[in-house]
Hints:
Layout: H1 4-26, H2 35-57, H3 61-85, H4 92-112, H5 116-139, H6 147-170, H7 180-183, H8 186-229, H9 240-256, E1 261-268, H10 271-278, H11 280-297, E2 303-306, E3 311-317, H12 321-337, E4 340-342, E5 345-347, E6 351-357, H13 365-381, E7 387-389, E8 399-400
Parallel strand pairs: 6-7
Antiparallel strand pairs: 1-3, 1-6, 2-3, 4-5, 7-8
Helix pairs in contact: 1-2, 1-8, 2-3, 2-8, 3-4, 3-5, 3-8, 4-5, 5-6, 6-8, 10-11, 11-12
Amino acid sequence: MLDISSILFSLAMVETFMTFMLVIFLYSKTKAAGLKEMAYATCASALGALLTGRGTSIPDYDLMYYGIVCFTLSNMFVARSMRRLQGQEPLYFLEITLLIIVTSYTYYFAVVTNDIFGLATSNAILYALISAVTAKNLLSERRSELILGCKILGYMFIAFFLFQLIKLMSRPLVEAMPSLAAQIAMIDYVDVFVAMCMAIGWSFGLIWASFSQSEFLLLSAKKSAEQQARTDILTGIYNRRGFFEDAEAIDIKARKDDQPFVFAMIDIDNFKFVNDTWGHDIGDIALKEVTDIMLKQLRKTDLVGRIGGEEFAVLFPQTLIKEGINMAERIREAIEENIIKTPKGDIKLTVSIGITYLQDRNKTLKDILSHSDSALYQAKSEGRNKVKLYSLSEINNPVEL
């Protein structure tokens, strides 16, 4: 015949082991949200199992009373640890209210009436409610770093909720009897085994979810740092490094697939005058405005970057030279026609553009950049606000468009 007190002592050993394990993690360098509350939960459950096991073996209903209260505290700490995992504050008022209710009915059933059936039924209802609310909160988590962990933990709470419903339905509806042994049903033995499984599952689930969250955030931070290293802070487009890293990939693919592309260098005319006259804060406004205008003219597949103070580069993939010239002209005209509103007055800017295209596959991307730069220099020297095409057929003599 099964001995409920021996099973409870076994539960106490399991919970004590889980407490030590959680404490080790807690005092390690790893900071897992909810770990402290889960350690409190397993400690309270271990104490509850010891007191309840001792109370059933004597029997002593006073010890059982304290043991059941400890079990309730354990469930409340588990629910609190899940809230900590999700970055939420504990519901202190609700917890205190529940604790008052639990201590009241536990004292009545365990000490006053010695009604284990009534006590078990009341606890099953309470645990089912706590599990249902906790599962709902976990499964409603929408942050990417927590969705999977919270979903697994949420399903564990659903399983515990369903078990409490089964416990309520399977208990025979009989009056409490004086003998403690006569009031213990088979479901109580199963309940202890379920508690063991939940203690292990919730503890490891919390640790795994916390580690997964930390790993996700670390990878996100690394990705963000890499993105920032490739992005111009002022304009939000690629900086020189980011632009040429992607440009090299496009260049390699274009040569492999025998596809054309057009490369353009764009420089804001007389930009030093803007900075010297109105200040660098107005110059920053102008740079952002010019960037926005260019982005409106470009396609999603086009690559654009700020590679110098007022100098930009654009790569038009899978683009023939005629189409590239037209797009460069649209950019030049849009900037020329735009009026930039600033706190110190309106500003009108123009740009000079030098373009070339992939026409000699023996030439590297660096050569293409140099050719565009030569065409840009020619546009500047001839009065600015022009688009000049560099042609290999007329070396060192860019074509005016």
